[in-house]
Amino acid sequence: MAPDALLPVFVALPLIVAAVTALSPWRLLNDALSLLIPTINLAGGIWLYFYTAQHGTIGHIIGLYQGGAGIAFAGDQFSAIMLITTMLVALISNWFAIVSGEMNARYYTPLTLVLITGVSGALLTADLFNFFVMIEVMLLPSYGLIAMSGTRHRLQSARLFVLVNLAASTFLVMGVGYVYAVTGAVNIGALQGAAAGNGPVTVAMAIVVAAICAKAAVFPLHTWLPRTYTSTSAAVMGLFSGLHTKVAVYMLFRIWVVIFDMDARWNWLIIGVMIVSMLIGAFAGLAESTIRQVLGYQMINGMPFILIMLAFTQENARYALAAGLMYTLHHMITIGALTLNSGAIEETYGTGTLSKLSGLARRDPITATVFAAGAFSVIGFPPFSGLWGKLSLVFAAARPGDLASWVVIAAIIVASFGAMLAMFRVWREVFWGRPMDRFPENLRVRGALVAPSISLMLISLGMFIAAGPLWGATTASIDALLDVPSYTSAVLGTAPIGVPDTATLQGGH
């Protein structure tokens, strides 16, 4: 079997096993498969990273149709590193779901595996329409995971989640349809540079980008995330934190480099939207009443830190995008750790409300240590991955040395200060203060519940220590992203059909 033929397996395997677990009555088997499948895709992502490092981007068209005429998959180091990190978060979130009892729900395992199917497909697809399809594959099980307990509050949140994502999906497929109408193609490789200077293509792609930004919870379409994610269980929120919004980040990076050709005319719009989103995410959490609601706004806060780097790709695209990717990897690991840690508290004490908890630093020192480590990482303090993530962003923004640099660096500092206030507020309310007398003295967070979040924070610590190799991996991944000719060649092959004339599209005719 040719190596490129393995790309569809990343999608087919979890989907087939999801069907098996939906029919299986054996909980132990389902639990094992819920860990095994993300582990296999994680291992596959590692293989894909090293294979493409040696051989370049690989592409595969289902059915071996000619380029431009079939369902295309493509893998490079950029898609591989995102696949590795998403599968790692999925694996540890499922581990937490098992130890917390969430996995006991009859269809929890098949729903998570279908979600993994969609994520894997979205990271490997080379077609805008198939990206929309994979997004829907992600969303359908997500509706069930949010509403799984059947409580009224969860059902209300699921309704909001469904409405927002259905609206965004409608605009996404409309945008993809308009792209096809004006270009005759939706293959990403075939659209190389199509939105740089071509008015109709730019408008059509703007609809696609706006829909993806809504799914990434970027201002002004951001309020749905903290209302819906925090209403479900911590296991599901941890799963979503590392998968949903980060798939959107992946595709926005790909679209910006390949289709928009990093068009500088959009820089100030990107900066303006991301700064507002950054500040809202940083400070809005100060008004929330539960740990996970505060963390929900930290998820919103992380997206603009990543996406604002798109506005600095003219000075040094490699450095700016590598900084954004570095922060993406840090954010997935750190927010996942904090979410699962808060879930351990909720499972033990029955609440995550700030006013109902206090003194946990003395009662549960390990849980408190994990939260403190995660808070340091979010703020950008050593010795955790957030330090290098924040510094790389600042250095990338400083390179042009113009007004945009000063504005963005100031916003990063102010937003980091807001995040620090939000984290300190949770620490003061939950972990400081006098011991709680409403719970039995011997009630403690079980080691099994806190172990998943410990493992993620140890990974964050390892990312801090191995900053050099990590930066090398991110820059290599961005080099693959920026190698558009290789990507296009892998996707379209040697004799593509139905591919628009790139010169004509770029000329705006």
Automatic annotation (TrEMBL):
* Annotated InterPro entries: CPA3_Na-H_Antiporter_D, ND/Mrp_TM
Name of the molecule in the record: Cation:proton antiporter
Q: Which UniProt keywords apply?
A: Cell membrane, Membrane, Transmembrane, Transmembrane helix
Q: Which family does it belong to?
A: Belongs to the CPA3 antiporters (TC 2.A.63) subunit D family.
Membrane spanning residue stretches: 32-50, 57-74, 80-100, 107-125, 131-148, 160-181, 201-222, 234-260, 266-287, 294-313, 319-345, 366-384, 404-427, 448-471
Which locations, inside or outside the cell, does it occupy? Cell membrane; Membrane
Q: Which organism is it from?
A: Corynebacterium tuscaniense
According to Swiss-Prot or TrEMBL, what is its membrane topology?
Multi-pass membrane protein
* Keyword Coiled coil included in the entry's annotation: no
Q: Tell whether Cell membrane is among the UniProt keywords.
A: yes
Q: Which GO terms describe its cellular component?
A: plasma membrane
- UniProt domain NADH:quinone oxidoreductase/Mrp antiporter transmembrane: residue ranges: 127-408
Pfam families given for it?
Answer: Proton_antipo_M
